[in-house]
Amino acid sequence: GRNHHQAAQPAAVRRGVCRDDGAERPSLTRTAVPLHDVAGRHGDRLLRSDRFHRAGHAPRHADAVPQQRPSGARAGNRSFGCFRAAALRPRFQTVHPADQRHHRIAGNPHCGVGGLAQQIRYSMIELHDFSIGYGERTLLCEVEATIEKGKLTALIGRNGTGKSTLLRAIAGLNHRYAGRILLDGHNAADMRVVERARTLAFVTTERTRIANLKCEDVVAIGRAPYTNWIGRMQKADTEIVMRSLASVGMEDYAERTMDKMSDGECQRIMIARALAQSTPIILLDEPTSFLDMPNRYELCTLLARLAHEENKCILFSTHELDIALSLTDAIALIDPPCLSCLPTEEMRRSGCIERLFRNNSVTFDTATGSIKVKQ
Question: What DSSP character marks residue 24?
């Protein structure tokens, strides 16, 4: 029968190398195609590696990917940024457009590199050629600055120099500026509302005093970017709310209402709401303005702990120079039209604080880091 007929055929015929009459038959296997040639042939589109292999365009062989691009070859896959970066990737690894934002190099957000060359971003807030002001007054002009994650940074400056204006611009509440703001490598101007809400939390100076509103409900507002279209919280969301309350030491206040609490306690609840939002960036506008001295230090100590333990980028504005110099990791100083960002100790020795706050009555002592009254 059929099996006997196949067994009687020569092995070369069964493998498809030649026909029965002895003539050579073309091979059915496909040859290896370099990745950049295929990408260029497909209009610079990016292909998933698993689909790439299933389609049979390139076998899993080391010689399928050339180590160097031939001279004069056009750039096929622009997501590599440069061909040298492609050589650092695990072979056949490609980046889908939806995943490009996870493959960034610190300091160059336009160069997408993944795999072995993927690096951790240390700067969470970046200002590039940034200018802002109001009316005829320019507060900041062509500023270049970065705020790093895992650190507590204080934003200081004299009254009316634009501390709140800058924070509102970073938070997306003020769009009247020039230049670019990058949040975790993404242009803030291009971010959708939900994406921004999952990247940045903002605690303003406004007091929250709503009768019959429980602390647990206030903190639960921070989960809004992650709930479904009707806003129903899941069990995991409830656990995050309670964990956020515990992080600020307010788990026993979950059933209390906001109108029966002190300013310091309400401020902690608002910080817990920001923590429940699960964002890598937290902005606070003068969080110590309504607190007494012990609570001011306690609150800033809490912010420092959250920045270090949870690797968050926390930026807060303050007029408390002693707190900024003793509890923070870095200081961003506004001296219109400039913004200087330095580690705390370097800022203390730089002379910037002395120039900014010196007048006929007081002076800043760089040796002790304190304000002295002139006699």
Answer: B
